[in-house]
Write a structure and sequence with these properties.
The complex is a heterodimer. By secondary structure, chain A is mainly α. In chain A, 77% of the residues lie in helices and 0% in strands. The longest helix of chain A is centred in the first third of the chain and has 31 residues, at 19-49. Chain B has nine helices and no strands. Chain B is elongated and about 70 Å long. Chain B starts with 11 loop residues before the first helix and ends in a 7-residue tail after the last helix. Classes of the chains: A mainly alpha, B mainly alpha. The interface between A and B is large, with 59 and 55 residues.
Chain lengths: 396, 183
């Protein structure tokens, strides 16, 4: 039985609502509605009539000190994804505005929400610019504003979800995983299924990156049934990699093929490339070598066109394996040396470069087998998560 | 450059209706599920409803959202004052029987509850005293009675129903007894 059924009030025992509290609630609701109706115009006017270099001074203007203005600024920053620098200036303005609002201007919990979300947006904007350390500091500022208020668990989870994403980009996977686990629970218990889904996907992808494929499968498989098309496409890509590593190439091919079609329909060109790389990897494991070579070659070229050297390299190592299976050693060697050059040029991990260079030597000496290529590929892939292992050791 | 924020489509009466509809439920959850004192439970419920206002456009299903929020708030309440609330421990057992929560709540105050207890046989009275005056958990009541917790929970419900029955019939009796001095 659900809690709310258990506690369903009967008319006889219904608690009386305090009229002053009810009045505060409705007055605040009305005020927010009114602010929302006018804030976009205020923001637009003030930004237009103020030189960009002086935007931060707008934080002192009293007409900016409303929740509506903060929501408008957040919305504006959101639309500036293509211009992360401007998005950051807007987000910085929002934090200045939020912190300048007098403490008694709104109910305390609401003011904490307003300030925390402004800092969260600033953290996000910094993250888009790759300024991860500063982003974490901004997100900690958001957490600080929420912590004194015990009714803000949902807001805290929203901020922590962004923190998890930043930590993941910094390859601090253990911390990210712990936060995601916590956020998932909070979203589920609030019936916030949209964020719960996003969190589940993030968790699944994180587990894949950490090489915990069985756990990732456990998280993502049940999620497929109720996922929306976008989320399902992402989940099936991740499940494809799980299946590859668990050794079920048929299942992997099914997941990747589905995800590739879906990505095409969703107009996600980069995801189409990533999933076609997955298709190639599955075909290779199914011993459909010619198809695998064609698919992987195509995927690698498109990764390089997007300047995604690391992914192109990993894809290329699958291709080296395919060449070795097909006994096309010359092509395998030439490709391996090409990948070494690309990695060196892009100043990628030195250990990865050494591993690929030794594969190259082995092919030249006719000592390389397809298994050698696969272990080098697995080693290079594992280096992507190594930073976290080092960090974990320091923390523990 | 900026687009107007979407209007939530709620008018003042609808906000008022939301508050009136959910305030009671949230307070009850805090009190009965987490044993938050009445006055604090009301403040928590009010704050939870306040936080909803800012998210109104994004909360798809209000009821579970509010219930989640009050549950988290109640747990944090105890954490904040330094008492750990056993979140899942015996939660089923501690949850009042749906049939009896109404009865317990209908007893107007402690005095009336005591009066109701007076009407009960000793065994019934002891059980309810343990649970509601000594503050024992269902598991503790079970332990003291030497029975299983599930059975103790059933016994408590039975005692409450009996108390209500006797109390109500006593009320009817006294109402029907002619008062002295009247003709």
């Amino acid at each position: 039985m659900r809690d709310d059924d258990t506690f369903a009030p009967s008319d006889r025992t219904r608690r009386r609502v305090d009229p002053s509290r009810l009045a505060e609630f409705t007055a605040t609701a009305r005020r927010l509605q009114e602010e929302r109706a006018t804030s976009a115009e205020i923001v637009e006017r003030l930004l237009n009539e103020t030189p960009r270099a002086d935007w931060l001074t707008l934080a002192d203007r009293s007409e900016m000190h409303t929740n509506g203005v903060l929501e408008s600024l957040a919305q504006l920053a959101d639309t500036l994804e293509h211009d992360p620098r401007e998005a950051l200036v807007i987000a910085e303005l929002a934090t200045h505005v939020a912190d300048a609002i007098p403490d008694d201007a709104y109910p305390r919990v609401m003011l904490a929400q307003m300030r925390a979300h402004a800092w969260k947006e600033r953290g996000r904007a910094l993250c888009y610019l790759g300024r991860h350390e500063e982003s974490l500091l901004a997100l900690e500022a958001a957490v600080e504003r929420l912590c004194p208020h015990i009714v803000l668990s949902h807001d805290l989870a929203i901020v922590n979800f962004v923190r998890a994403s930043v930590l993941q980009q910094m390859r601090r996977f253990s911390e990210a995983q712990a936060l995601l686990k916590e956020c998932r629970t909070v979203f589920r218990e609030h019936g916030d299924w949209r964020r719960y889904g996003e969190c589940t996907l993030a968790m699944g992808n994180l587990l894949v990156r950490r090489g915990d494929y069985a756990a990732a499968r456990g998280v993502l498989s049940p999620f497929l049934r109720r996922a929306k098309p976008e989320a399902r496409a992402i989940a099936r890509t991740a499940l494809g990699w799980c299946a590859i590593h668990i050794g079920d190439a048929e299942e992997a091919l099914d997941h990747f093929t589905y995800a590739m079609d879906a990505s095409r329909q969703l107009n996600w060109p980069l995801e189409v490339v990533r999933t076609s790389y997955g298709v190639g990897a599955a075909l290779l494991r199914l011993n459909r070598i010619d198809e695998a070579i064609a698919t992987l070659t195509n995927a690698r070229e498109r990764f390089l066109a997007h300047e995604l050297i690391e992914e192109a390299g990993l894809c290329g190592l699958e291709l080296v394996e395919a060449y070795l299976v097909a006994r096309r050693a010359d092509e395998a060697r030439s490709l391996a040396s090409r990948i070494v050059w690309e990695f060196t040029n892009a100043a990628l991990n030195r250990r990865a470069i050494s591993a690929i260079a030794s594969l190259n030597d082995a092919i030249e000496a006719c000592n390389a087998t397809p298994e050698t290529a696969r272990s080098v590929q697995a080693y290079v892939a594992s280096l992507r998560t190594e930073f976290d292992h080092d960090c974990g050791a320091m923390i523990n | 450059m900026t687009t107007p924020l979407p209007h939530t489509g709620f008018d003042e009466e609808q906000f008022e209706a939301v508050y009136v509809r959910y305030f009671d439920l949230l307070v009850r959850l805090a009190i009965f599920k987490f044993r938050v004192p009445d006055a604090d439970a009301e403040s928590l419920a009010h704050d939870v409803l306040m936080t909803y206002l800012r998210k109104q456009q994004f909360v798809v299903d209000l009821r579970p959202w509010l219930i989640g929020a009050i549950c988290y708030a109640s747990r944090h309440y105890w954490r904040q004052i330094g008492k750990s609330f056993p979140a899942n421990h015996d939660s089923d057992l501690e949850r009042p029987d749906p049939a009896s929560v109404r009865i317990l709540d209908s007893l107007p105050d402690q005095l009336a509850a005591r009066e109701a207890l007076e009407c009960l046989p000793r065994r019934y009275r002891e059980i309810l005293e343990m649970r509601y005056f000594e503050g024992c958990t269902v598991a503790e009541v079970a332990n003291r009675l030497g029975v299983k917790p599930r059975y103790a929970q059933k016994l408590i419900g039975k005692c409450l129903r009996r108390a209500e029955l006797l109390y109500t019939s006593k009320g009817k009796e006294s109402a029907s007894t002619p008062k002295k001095g009247r003709g």
